[in-house]
Amino acid sequence: MSREERRHVAQMLAAIDEPHVLRDPAFQRRRRFSLLVFMGSCVVLAAWIGVLMVTLPKHYAEGHWRGAWVGFDMALLGAFAATAWAAWRERQVLIICLTVTGTLLCCDAWFDLLFDLGTRNILESLASAVFAEIPLAVLMFVVARRLLRMSVGIVMQLEGIESPVPSLWRIPLFAEGLAGTLPARYRQGEKAQAEKEAVS
User: Fold this and answer.
1) Contact residues for 171 (Cβ-Cβ < 8 A; gap 6+)
2) Mind listing the pLDDT tens digit for each residue in 102-127?
3) CB neighbourhood size of 188 (10 A)
4) How many CA atoms lie within 13 A of 132 on its CB side?
5) What average pLDDT does the structure give for the chain?
């Protein structure tokens, strides 16, 4: 085995001994809280769909009004359910689900405000956007970013890169390994390790 191969095997064995980020108690608390939010949102949204189906008029000047809103909220409910499932099962698709659900929440807030502008329902839509939809969307975007950075950090750790996780804007989409593609300042830990081994 070459020196480089021995170094790679040693790095992988050392990474096995590191405490796994998903077993961190703080992460587990955040995960339980997120699951509660997702499942609670599913229940509230399912009830809201029922209210819309009963209260929205069957015919409206724009046509297919009830079908549009109920259909959109059903898609949002499906996104919440998929997000809750992915969080419960700890699947990578959670990052996509969070992004999609957050985007749908922003769209929901936008259309609610736009269509209720100048009507007596504007305060209700504004409160819904400010206190529910936008904060939930921001939470989902933040969690998606955090999970993406954690995933990159684990890959960097397995490749023996000890530097902090760089900005997601700097990480290439496809690469055989992060070590050869990151800017030089993020490879300092790897270079120092190689120099230490060369001396010994």
Assistant:
1) 152, 178, 181, 182
2) 999 999 998 888 888 888 888 988 99
3) 12
4) 18
5) 77
Residue 86, token pair as written in the block = 């992915």
pLDDT at 66: 67
pLDDT at 83: 92
Least confident interval from 57-71, 80-94, 98-112, 113-127: 57-71
Residue type, position 145, single letter: R
C-alpha–C-alpha distance, residues 133 and 127, integer Å: 9
Of 83, 86, 103, which is closest to residue 37 (Cα–Cα)? Answer: 83
DSSP per-residue string spanning 123-178: HHHHHHIIIIIHHHHHHHHHHHHHHHHHHHHHHHHHTT--SPP--TTTS-SS-S-S
Query: Among 71-75, 95-99, 152-156, which is the least confidently predicted range?
Result: 152-156
34 within 8 A of 87, measured Cβ to Cβ: yes
Q: What is the C-alpha separation between 149 and 52, in angstroms, rounded?
A: 39
Of 70, 139, 146, residue with least CA distance to 108:
70
Task: Answer yes or no: are the C-beta atoms of 162 and 189 closer than 8 Å.
Answer: yes
